[in-house]
């Protein structure tokens, strides 16, 4: 009994210590929760800067980025081609050797190269190199033979690709072999200006970043002024935009400067939001599906059709008078407008179901193909499956999803764009379909 009492006493002591530890832990959690709540409240109260940043971001999103739209911003060949064009003193840009001079100076070229006669410089892309039966291509190669002994500048450009093993060392050996006695200036260009992997090559290649390229482009635009064709200036302006947005987004500008200030001031609250963002991220498909059904219900000339997430469907109220359009199986109607919600957007199109009266289906398809000015029908021929008769387009896209927190505004956007469709394209579509149905019914007697 004495042993049992001792064990009980020890157990009670341990439980008491555990209770104290749990109380202490609970107090720590309470303190941390209070700190987090206070940080979030301070962030919410600091509305002026947040509102200003939101406005700046809206303008930034509206900025046209042609190269991004063309999917060129991540193409290393595109950047190399553009840089070679700017570096060529004889290029159609009309800048002469302006960009070449500043590029060499920014890349740390020695004084003897900087004193060269610039207009005679030859610039080549994808320069073929060969040594002892091995072959390679250098991204940008420049040769100037008019200076004392001449010089060669080699640029290896890496936008997203990684450095090839031994690649820079091989280029260096080939250049030393092919241009013995000439000065060789080697430049390793990357978005962030990282040095080569090989410690020896780090001593022999000058590193350069796309932040440097952006600065050179903007300086060139400022210096050129009216002396250069306005189309060239517009082109350079577009390139500067795509560099800032896609290659070196950390470059300081008004947006990032304000964002940094807000983050430093509200780091605890912002980190909390980022750490738990998956909890807060909405289910776009579910919400856009719901908002679509609400918007459909607000249109008096439409009736909701068979809906199953992620498809919200509707038909014209005029079509309900034609029982020929009703079918026994899914989706229970021959013609349907479909709003398809995906994580990347909300698309509206007009479809012909795969069941129902075969003769009527063919009649409708023929009417659609006979009116290409109204219907954007990509189907080359009639089939017995679902046929997309007309693509209206995106009611929402990825850019709209960035503004998710304005939930009311997003619903109003969907309703507004569907309203525009109801006032714009829909009447012509409805008129052709109703005429087709009338003719079909008249023929059937």
Task: Compose a concise summary of this entry.
The chain is an alpha+beta fold and 445 residues long.
Topology at a glance:
Layout (H helix, E strand, L loop, with lengths): L1 H44 L1 H16 L3 H4 L6 H12 L10 H9 L4 H4 L7 E10 L2 E11 L6 E7 L9 H12 L4 E8 L8 H6 L1 E4 H15 L5 H18 L6 H12 L1 H9 L1 H4 L3 H14 L4 E3 L6 E6 L18 E8 L2 E8 L5 H12 L17 E10 L1 H4 L5 H17 L2 H19 L1
Parallel strand pairs: 3-4, 4-5
Antiparallel strand pairs: 1-2, 2-3, 6-7, 7-8, 8-9, 9-10
What does this structure look like?
With 445 residues, the chain is an alpha+beta fold. 52% of the residues lie in helices and 17% in strands. The chain contains 18 helices and 10 strands. The protein has helices at 2-45, 47-62, 66-69, 76-87, 98-106, 111-114, 167-178, 199-204, 210-224, 230-247, 254-265, 267-275, 277-280, 284-297, 358-369, 398-401, 407-423, 426-444, and strands spanning 122-131, 134-144, 151-157, 183-190, 206-209, 302-304, 311-316, 335-342, 345-352, 387-396. α1 packs across α12 and α5 packs antiparallel against α9. The longest helix is centred in the N-terminal third of the chain and has 44 residues, at 2-45. The radius of gyration is 33 Å and the shape is extended. It starts with a helix and ends with a helix.
């Amino acid at each position: 009994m004495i042993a049992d009492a001792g064990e009980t006493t020890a157990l009670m002591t341990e439980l008491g210590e555990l209770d104290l530890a749990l109380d202490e832990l609970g107090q720590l959690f309470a303190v941390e929760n209070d700190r987090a709540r206070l940080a979030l409240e301070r962030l919410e109260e600091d509305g002026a800067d947040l509102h200003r940043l939101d406005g700046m971001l809206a303008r930034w999103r509206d900025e046209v980025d042609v190269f991004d739209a063309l999917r060129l911003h991540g193409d290393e060949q595109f950047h190399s081609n553009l840089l070679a064009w700017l570096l060529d003193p004889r290029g159609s840009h009309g800048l002469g050797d302006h960009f070449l001079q500043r590029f060499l100076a920014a890349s740390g070229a020695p004084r003897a190269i900087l004193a060269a006669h610039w207009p005679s410089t030859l610039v080549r892309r994808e320069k073929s190199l060969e040594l002892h039966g091995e072959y390679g291509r250098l991204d940008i190669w420049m040769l100037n033979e008019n200076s004392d002994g001449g010089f060669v500048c080699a640029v290896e450009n890496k936008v997203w690709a990684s450095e090839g093993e031994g690649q820079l060392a091989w280029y260096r050996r080939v250049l030393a072999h092919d241009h013995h006695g000439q000065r060789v200036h080697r430049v390793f260009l990357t978005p962030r200006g990282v040095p080569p992997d090989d410690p020896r090559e780090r001593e022999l290649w000058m590193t350069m970043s796309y932040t440097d390229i952006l600065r050179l482009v903007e300086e060139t635009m400022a210096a050129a002024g009216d002396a250069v064709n306005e189309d060239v200036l517009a082109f350079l302006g577009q390139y500067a935009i795509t560099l800032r947005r896609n290659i070196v987004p950390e470059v300081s500008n008004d947006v990032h400067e304000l964002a940094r200030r807000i983050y430093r001031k509200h780091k605890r609250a912002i980190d909390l939001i980022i750490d738990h963002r998956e909890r807060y991220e909405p289910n776009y498909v579910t919400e856009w599906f719901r908002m679509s059904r609400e918007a459909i219900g607000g249109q008096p000339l439409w009736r909701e059709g068979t809906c199953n997430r992620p498809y919200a469907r509707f038909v014209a109220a005029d079509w309900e008078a034609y029982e020929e359009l009703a079918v026994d199986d899914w989706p229970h109607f021959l013609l349907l407008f479909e709003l398809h919600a995906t994580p990347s957007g909300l698309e509206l199109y007009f479809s012909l179901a795969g069941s129902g009266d075969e003769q009527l289906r063919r009649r409708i398809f023929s009417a659609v193909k006979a009116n290409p000015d109204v219907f954007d029908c990509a189907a080359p021929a009639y089939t017995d499956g679902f046929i997309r008769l007309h693509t209206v387009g995106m009611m929402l896209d990825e850019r709209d999803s960035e503004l998710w927190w304005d939930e009311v505004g997003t619903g109003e956007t969907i309703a507004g764009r569907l309203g525009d469709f109801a006032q714009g394209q829909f009447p012509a579509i409805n008129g052709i379909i109703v005429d087709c149905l009338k003719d079909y019914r008249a023929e059937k007697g």
